[in-house]
């Protein structure tokens, strides 16, 4: 199946982005609305992925300093390379902006997988909404990720 990803602005697509993130992070993962919508969306660049019918099914954002976050894929699309489509779109944005490195906060039990793909820990483990996370960084050219969700 083919998925279309577009770089979008929060001000124009916030309702679709918000809907996906609410379904994934608020209802499924039980983040609070205040945690999920942290005020960084206006300053970040976003990717919105649609299925062949035009339905918005996934999203993610890239901050000015290269942090990938809020990658959310609707449950029924998770094993269909949609997360990879989001990440590739965000990497293209990072390359357009001349960034050399990107980083994200990995679930602690997935750190080994990402280390094997070239990521290195860049900080201490911390807790967010009861979930242990580890900040990781990687050179964009080495970034080979298969993902479902990054918060």
TrEMBL record:
**N-acetyltransferase domain mapped to chain residues:** 1-141
This protein's name: GNAT family N-acetyltransferase
Q: What is the lineage of its organism?
A: Bacteria, Pseudomonadati, Pseudomonadota, Gammaproteobacteria, Alteromonadales
Concerning InterPro entries, the annotation shows: Acyl_CoA_acyltransferase, GNAT_dom
Q: Which organism is it from?
A: Psychrosphaera ytuae
Q: Which GO terms describe its molecular function?
A: acyltransferase activity, transferring groups other than amino-acyl groups
Q: What single Pfam family name could you report for this chain, choosing any that match?
A: Acetyltransf_10
């Amino acid at each position: 199946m083919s998925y279309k990803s577009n770089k979008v602005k929060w001000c124009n697509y916030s309702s679709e982005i918000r809907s996906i993130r609410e379904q994934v992070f608020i209802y499924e993962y039980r983040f609070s609305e205040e945690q999920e919508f942290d005020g960084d969306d206006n300053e970040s660049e976003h990717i919105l992925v649609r299925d062949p019918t035009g339905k918005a099914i996934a999203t993610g954002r890239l901050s000015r300093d290269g942090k990938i976050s809020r990658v959310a894929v609707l449950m029924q699309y998770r094993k269909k390379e949609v997360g990879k489509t989001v990440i590739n779109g965000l990497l293209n944005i990072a390359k357009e902006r001349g960034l050399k490195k990107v980083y994200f906060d990995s679930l602690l039990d997935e750190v080994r997988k990402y280390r094997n793909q070239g990521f290195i820990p860049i900080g201490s483990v911390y807790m967010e909404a009861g979930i242990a996370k580890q900040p990781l960084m990687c050179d964009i050219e080495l970034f080979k990720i298969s993902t479902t969700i990054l918060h």
